[in-house]
Design goal:
Blueprint: E1 2-8, H1 15-28, E2 32-37, H2 51-62, E3 68-70, H3 83-90, E4 95-101, H4 102-106, H5 114-120, E5 121-126, E6 137-139, H6 149-157, H7 168-177
Parallel strand pairs: 1-2, 1-4, 2-3, 4-5, 5-6
Helix pairs in contact: 2-7, 3-5
Amino acid sequence: MKLGVFGGEFDPPHLGHLAVIRTATAQLGLDRLLVVPAGHPPHRERSRRSGEQRLALCEAAFGEEAVVEVTDLEVRREGPSYTVDTLEQLAGDGELFLVIGADQYAAFERWRSPERIRELATLVVAPRTGFAVGLDAVLLDMAPVDLSSSELREAMARGERVSDKLAASVSELIQRAGMYAF
C-alpha cells in the first residue's frame, strides 16, 4: 500500500493544502493519504487553536477527499510533535511518502533525524516560489503553492476576508465557532 503523510499545523487549512493533497494523491497513486495536524510543533509557538479545533477544520477541508483520512496521531501525543516519531509509528503500514512544502524542505536538515526520515519515507515536495528542491525528493507537478496559513491568520487579524482562499466548509466552521477572532 502507498501511504502519504501530510503534516502541519493547518491553522487554518486552505485551498493550497487541498491542491497539494489532490496532486500528491493522483501523481503518486496513493492508496491513502493521512493528514496529520501537529500537536505541538517544536519549532514554533503553540497554536491559539486547540488540536481538536484544527482537527475539525481539517475534517471540514479534506473530509470529502476519497483517500484522505484526518488523524489525531500527533494531537494526542504528549510533548513536541516530531515527524520522525509519526513515521516510526506508521512504519510497516505500507510504503510511506512524506508530503511537505518547499519551504519546509529548505529547513529539512534542521528537523529531528532527517536521515531516519529519509529511511522511512520518500520525500515529496510541493513547489513554492523562491525555494529549490533537490534530487533527493519527488517534486509535485503543480503550480507553486504561494499561500500560507500564517498569512491568512494575519489577514483575518486585520479584519480582511479570506473566504476565497478556504473551502466553504472551513469558512463556515471558522465563522460559526469564532476561531480566529483576534
